[in-house]
Amino acid sequence: MEWDDSIAWTTFGLMGQSAFFSRFLVQWVVSERSGMSVVPRAFWYLSLIGSAAMLIYAIHRQEPIFALGQTAGVIVYVRNLVLIQRQQKIGRPPDTA
User: Fold this and answer.
1) Distance between CA atoms of 74 and 91, rounded to whole angstroms?
2) 65 in a domain, yes or no?
3) Which of 11, 47, 70, 86 lies 20 to 30 A from 56 at CA?
4) Taken in order 41, 45, 51, 52, is the CA torsion positive or negative?
5) Is residue 9 part of a domain?
6) Cβ 73 vs Cβ 46: under 8 Å
7) Which alpha helices (DSSP H) does the chain contain, by range?
């Protein structure tokens, strides 16, 4: 493996991890502003972006356990976004607690 390839993949993995971590900061700020526990839609998008990036990184690194865990996460995050969209279509606000 070339040095440049390694730096690029490491950067990609760190960006995925950063997106995944930032979801907690977003959730915390939104909850503090609301005065109650809130899980905003941005939390689920950041979860999906971060998890998908880490899944790609795990596949590149050929780490099946890591890849399996991220695959499960991607499924959960997509499902939550589908449920939120479905709730909005019927005019019911998503649960925030």
Assistant:
1) 26
2) yes
3) 86
4) positive
5) yes
6) no
7) 3-34, 41-61, 64-89
Tell me the CA distances in angstroms from 61 to 6, 8, 58, 67, one per residue in order.
10, 13, 5, 9
94 domain-assigned: no
Report pLDDT digits (tens) over 13-65: 999 999 999 999 999 999 999 999 999 999 999 999 999 999 999 999 999 99
Inside any domain, residue 96: no
Tell me which residue range forms the domain holding 45.
3-89
- Total count of domains within the chain: 1
pTM: 0.83
The SS3 of residue 89 is helix
- Burial classification of residue 45, based on how many CB atoms lie within 10 Å of its CB (0-12 exposed, 13-18 middle, 19 or more buried): middle
